[in-house]
Amino acid sequence: MTARELDAAGIIHPRLRAAYAACRRLNARHGKTYFLATRLLPVDRRSAVHALYGFARYADDIVDDLGSQAGVDERKAALDALESQWQVAIQGGEVCEPVVLAAADTRARYRIPARHFIDFLRSMRSDLSVTDYPTYADLAAYMHGSAAVIGLQMVPVLGTVVPRPEAEPQAAALGVAFQLTNFLRDVGEDLDRGRVYLPADLLAAHGVDRDLLLWSRLTGCRDARITQALRAAAAMTRSVYKEAERGIAQLEPVSAPCVRTAFVLYRDILAAIESDGFAVVHRRAVVGRRRRLSVAARGFGRALAARSSLPRLGRLSRRSDDGDEAAGLGASQNPGTTVGIAAKRGSE
Questions:
Q1: How far apart are the C-alpha atoms of 86 and 345, rounded to whole Å?
Q2: Is 132 helix (H, G, I), strand (E, B) or coil?
Q3: Average pLDDT of the residues in 247-254
């Protein structure tokens, strides 16, 4: 399947093919929900999504890997090295890290604004020193870089049936909804990392603070105040899902089933947290394999229907900010001039 995706995307150079394949393996291994949804995209767009996921996952593992004994200074040095390679890659220079090579190539092909990657790396860097967020506004500033920009990076790949700026707020909201869901699911693991992502003011409104969460984590004891605070966080997250859902109809019909599937599966994680009595301080809530496959099967049916209608619909415009059609796809027509291999491309 990897070769078919790469061929369809016009990725020919051996180094690039190897880089994209490495990103795909990362997605398959770590992003099970995300990877499952990606399989519903047209085959020529999947490699780009794998590349964006691979870059984000690589950076996230630098700052978050619980299995690593690396200290803050070592993690900072690794993040510095990643950012340095990124800057070289988007200027057309040679880099050795596969995720950087693939992500920079995807950025060039689809003309994804470089600022989205800069903002992402800035939020990753803050994870090395920031361990809590006093208010939701503080958390939102972090999530812009760690989650909203992921949605914004995806918009050019997915394509829209409206001018891109109209679709971007909902795409950003979807990234935030996914991350808020992860924050709820991973409360216990984040405590082990020394972090509390849920806003302190939301927790305090229910009589909860870091010390109470740590006590619950260490003793295994439940507390009604924690349950109420987590329930409030879940309600807040559902409101973001409601905002984000409006954007699915703005995507190209061949991409919408993928995003709809990811939307349902991530929202199911939220439902699983609720069904498990908000026990996330002690254990992860999971969506069963049967449910995930059922949702994916429905998405596959919608994807097939959308593709079968393409001859009638004609080519839909993948609109860029300035109205150019199929923004950035010229690179896929001329893969011998991709970033980091031969051509020199500046950042946007």
A1: 13
A2: strand
A3: 96
